[in-house]
Amino acid sequence: MDSLITAAARALAAGDPLGALNRIALRDDAPALALRGIAMAQLGDLDRAKALVRRAARAFGPHEAVSRARCVVAEAEIALVSRDLGWPAKTLDAARATLERHGDRVNAAQARSLAIRRLLLIGQLDEADRLLAEADPAPLPPALEAVRELVRAGIAMRRLKAGAARVAVARAGRAAERAGIPALTAEVESALRVLDTPAARLIARGGERQMWLDDVEALQASKALVVDACRNVVRDPRATVALARRPVLFALARTLAEAWPGDASRATLLTQAFGARVADESHRARLRVEIGRLRAMLRPLAEVSATERGFALTPRRARDVVVLARPMEEKHADVLALLADGEAWSSSALALALGASQRNVQRALESLAAAGKVQAFGHARARRWMTPPVPGFTTTLLLPTALPTG
């Protein structure tokens, strides 16, 4: 490798894309194309970056397997930043295996980190944990060490483990300081801000208050019966009942929990569960049926009993009943939660992350756009959606994800 390529690579490693381009901007050989693509990605021109990296991959010969694998890793990182979550994960895994076979431990670690970050975005935390545990424990360069710790912190945040997240962010900060890359330092600072902003609201006994991630973690370990409106589950210290696919039952459970220790009137239950402004006999009959279904599903956790004016919730083991809600609640809040990271998302990526149909996500985006809450740019498959982050709130921590069972 010639001196200009070496100097450009060092500039990119130090977070200086303009310095790298000054050395190789006019070159079209395969190594220069790859480095130009990475430089353009660092500068934010992702479409140009993707085109250059693909040209580089084609330009490398059939015997340059390591260089081609590095191009695959670079393209995967561009795809992740541009929220192309449908990018083929098997291609990245094959590239990582190639790099490991040829002893390129650093780029193999980067490939594994990208795979974990994608899994984190789409809520597959168990798989992300598995990949992280399989990683080579040997020391990495400071920049990659910082990224690995940020990934570890991200998993801990989504697991609602504030202590572990803070430890990981602190380690990431020390590694970022050694790396001396401003963008990496900014990412660590962003993670710290997430930990220090409200993550949810606690509704109990007629009042409510904001909760930080540490508070949510403490609530998880408490003896309360929690009606979790972030994940649509009801849980106590021993059991969890998922109602994510039973929205009517969850609406009833939440209304009963908000009324605890009193009861909720039939009129209130009909309004909250069915949106009925004027109840007739058919509504009342349906309420009796749905209450019966809720009673059966919550039997391990609580009793749902009839009262003179409605129904009441009585926990079997818990000492208290609380509702855990998002910091801000509105229609399509889950879509806004993902868009709040400030990145540009495609509707297909949002659908993958939320486990929803793309058409439903598109309808939600159109509704939010009409209300002026999101904006789109580009056309057809290149169309992307984004919104400024909601100041003072952390919503992505409480996106639906698999709950720990132990």
Structural write-up:
The C terminus is likely disordered. The chain starts with a helix and ends in a 20-residue tail after the last strand. A hairpin with a 2-residue loop joins strand 1 and strand 2. The chain has a six-stranded mixed β-sheet. A three-stranded antiparallel β-sheet has the order 6-8-7. It is elongated and about 85 Å long. The protein folds into three domains: 193 residues, Alpha Horseshoe (Serine Threonine Protein Phosphatase 5, Tetratricopeptide repeat), CATH 1.25.40; 125 residues, Arc Repressor Mutant, subunit A; 66 residues, Arc Repressor Mutant, subunit A. It contains 18 helices and eleven strands. With 406 residues, the chain is α+β, with helices and mostly antiparallel strands.
CATH topology-level name of the largest domain: Serine Threonine Protein Phosphatase 5, Tetratricopeptide repeat
Q: Span between N and C termini? A: 52 Å
- What fraction of the residues are assigned to beta strands by DSSP? 5-15%
Shape: elongated
CATH superfamily assignment of the largest domain? Tetratricopeptide repeat domain
Number of strands: 11
Structural class: alpha+beta
The CATH class designation of the largest domain is: Mainly Alpha
Please indicate the count of domains: 3
| Biggest beta sheet attributes | 6 strands, mixed
| Poorly predicted segments | 389-398, 402-406
Total DSSP helices: 18
Q: What is the CATH-assigned architecture of the largest domain?
A: Alpha Horseshoe
Order of helices and strands: HHHHHHHHHHHEEHEEEHEHHEEEHHHEE
Largest beta sheet: strand ordering: 2-1-9-3-4-5
Range of helix content: 55-70%
Overall pLDDT level: 86
